[in-house]
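> agent: user asked for a holo structure of the chain below bound to magnesium ion. Plan: (1) validate sequence alphabet, (2) canonicalize SMILES, (3) run complex prediction with ligand conditioning, (4) return tokens. Step 1... ok. Step 2... ok. Step 3 dispatched.
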Amino acid sequence: MTDNNIKARRKSRRGVLLRVCKYLFAHKWLLALAFFLMVTSNVLALVGPYLSGKALDAIELGTGSVDIDTVIKYCILMAVVYIVSGVLSYLLAVLMVHISQKITYSMRKELFDHLTELPVGYFDTHQTGDTVSHISYDIDTVNASLSNDLLQICASIITVVGSFVMMVKISPVLLSVFLFTVPVSIIFTRYKTIHIRPYFRRRSAKLGELNGYAEEMLSGQKAIRAYGREDVITGRFDGKNGEACDAYYDADYHGAVIGPAVNFINNLSISFITMLGGILYMLTLIMGASLHPMLRVALSDVGTFVQYSRKFAGPINEFANILSEIQSATSAAERVFNLMDEAPEPLDAEDAVVLSDVQGKVDIDHVYFGYVPGKTIIKDFNLNCKPGSTIAIVGPTGAGKTTVINLLMRFYDIDRGAIYVDGNEIRQVTRDSLRLSYTMVLQETWLFCGTVYENIAYGRIGATREEVIAAAKAARIHSYIETLPDGYNTVLSDDGVNISKGQKQLLTIARAMLSDSPMLILDEATSNVDSRTEILIGEAMNELMKGRTCFVIAHRLSTIQNADRILVIRNGNIEEQGTHDELMKAKGFYASLYNAQFE
Ligand SMILES: Nc1ncnc2c1ncn2[C@@H]1O[C@H](COP(=O)(O)OP(=O)(O)OP(=O)(O)O)[C@@H](O)[C@H]1O
Ligand SMILES: [Mg+2]
């Protein structure tokens, strides 16, 4: 990695931490309470060794006499101090869980809200499973770290500083041992944490990939079985699983080394302290008052000092352990923030008008568009349609029919040219009002987990039960719904997997029937429905299309014969246009497509 890269990384990590802190500071009063609890409980815990030293002092080694009252007094005091400290740290832990859950909630909400603002193109280019893992796993990791690690770090700081002060008071000479061991463990942990960071970033990324892959494969079970590709799929999964485990192993391995190594250094320092303490005690006994006061120690001092030194070293050891957790939390937070920073759909133009009372005049003027720069799919597309007219778009697969719809709905912005609705350039219109002026029925149906009734009523806020049933009747799905065990209250499982594709499409058509938008888009809306039902729906469709501007895409050309204008698209160009009769007479591409149906 170059120096610049490292600097950029460091800066971005600082940015990530700052942003996490912003979430924390939203709960500053709770945080202040947590801080108070933490300080009190840790300071109380620090008093413990001091009291035990006092109890030891009550035993006079030379004579063997014991001031039992004093010993009992300090023992009781010690018990009280430790109990209060324990209760406070319990309260603190509960409070932190509370705070971190609040933060998780707001982070998830913010992320999900942001997802709804992303352009459609984002979802066309990112794996759903990976995105889902940001909402669940990554936010969870950040949360776990907030509720545990943050607290531990603060507590460690207090304990380390407190023990240090106490040790200085007892014997600065004994403290010299740490001059050697502390720098060694700090340098070691510092080196290690920098070293393991990339491993944790890789670990999160690999898990996201694994999730994405699993999601893709689980949703494609039928195709996988039909092609007998279970082995290939499991093989690939093994690969991805292996990579994820390797990444986990690497990260945890490098993280796990730190703990024991630091522990070893600390044990070493305790033995040095005991040795040096023993020597100083012996010198004190032998030389008495002639020994320099700095070097003089009582036996109780050595005992208390060792207790504080354990307290002092413990957090440094723990610190190393939680650093690895913080590493993974930082990478997770980084991924969450990256997603939050994905550019949302650009804001509507400042002077954007709200389309209202739409007549349905649509004009497309020299439009060029490509999904990826340099690869134009729609070239110089022109079209003028009168309000209430029906425009059929036909053409071979991949010709760009759906792309035209994407542009009409402004799911993607055009590269050149302009599209007008009722004379308003659509980039000068609010997206919401533009999209609400269309009703769309697509080949890929989307139903949500809810009742049949709710799924149809989704078409218009405030639709009455009678209207919902009338729509279902028009879509020729009413009698089927009646045969369901709970009728309109039957719950559709996830995306309506418990009903057929055609039935799903009919439900979405019923939903569209409810909508009162002035314009209609049907993209292969009846492709999964049998021909007879299609003709029956056709009548209802004609009713639906009356007075509305309609864009109909259909592969079955029989369904669009009555369109006011048929556009034949090939490679993003309008190759022919006219009514069915005109195009048949012209004996061009349309005629050949049409005749091919009967061959
Ligand atoms: N999100 C996307 N990103 C990049 N390219 C895309 C995207 N969606 C479609 N394309 C490409 O644009 C071209 C036109 O696709 P489009 O979906 O408009 O075809 P279509 O005419 O609707 O075909 P079909 O009859 O199969 O529905 C295709 O070559 C396709 O590969
Ligand atoms: Mg299409």
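> agent: step 4 complete. Summary for user: The first helix runs from residue 3 to 25. Residues 124, 371-372, 377, 395, 397-403 surround adenosine-5'-triphosphate (ligand 1) (CB under 6 Å).
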